[in-house]
Structure formats: structure tokens, C-alpha cells
Amino acid sequence: MHILLVDDDAGSLLGMKIALEILGHTCDTYTDPLQAMRDCIGLGYIYKYDAVITDIHMPAIDGIKLAGLLQFLVPELKVVIISGFVNDAIRQHAKHHGFSTLLPKPVSIQELSASLQ
Q: For residue 12, what pLDDT band results from cuts at 50, 70 and 90?
């Protein structure tokens, strides 16, 4: 799979990229969700991705809004939401927007693999 990774935490982003590449995937990474959105929409990059993995809490735009917009453009896009803080309210917020895959950070390689199946 070719995966878009968006997380404002550079350390988490690097860890996920390494784990996904070990699993045989290729990844493009962004720490700036607005830049990811500009590249995906403005440059048409969104059509090259099979999945997006994004953090919820980021500056400027949250991951649920970003993923929702990208999935609106490409409905078959697989979406995985991650968060350093997961509680019932966050689960409900994600589910309300149609996202059932919510993983707590730090995300293990096994969780990443299973979420992309």
C-alpha cells in the first residue's frame, strides 16, 4: 500500500513510517496537516494513496476533518485515526464522522498491520 501519514509529532511519524516500511508499505509523511491537504488536493496526490493514517489533535485542522475531506474525494480511501489521548468522547467523535478505526499512541506494528487489513 501507498500510505499518507500525517502527525505533528515528528517522532511518532518517524516510528510509524519505519514500522509500515518494515511491513512492505511505502509512505509519504507530513507534520503539517494543511500542507498535506494542499498537496493532496491541489497537486492531486490524494489519488496515489491507498490509505491515510492521521493523528486527531494537530494545529490548524484536526485529523478527523482532514481524513473526512480526503475520504470525500476518494471514498475507497482506508482511514486510520490515531491519538495520544483516547477516551469515550474521542471515540464517539471519530465514530460520528464515520471512522471506526481509532488507535491509541504509541501504535504497535501489529496494530498498524491489523488496521490496514
A: very high
In angstroms, rounded to a whole number, what is the distance separating the alpha carbons of residues 16 and 53? 9
C-alpha cell at 62: 484536526
The rounded mean pLDDT for the chain is: 92
Residue 39, amino acid: D
Give the structural domain span for 52: 2-115
Report pTM: 0.92
Q: How would residue 27 be classed by pLDDT, with cut points 50, 70 and 90? A: very high
The Cα 88–Cα 50 span in angstroms is 28
With H, G, I as helix, E, B as strand and everything else as coil, classify residue 106: coil
How many structural domains compose the chain? 1
Please report, for the domain that includes residue 57, its CATH number. Answer: 3.40.50.2300
| Cis-peptide, bond into residue 106, ω within 30° of zero | yes
